[in-house]
Amino acid sequence: MKSLKAAQKVDQAIQRLIKTKDKINFNQVVMESGVSKAFLYNNQEIRNRIEGLRKQQEGINTRKTTKHNLTDASKDSLIAAKNNRIKKLEEENKRLKDELLELRGMIYYKL
Question: The whole model's pTM is what?
Answer without folding.
Answer: 0.52
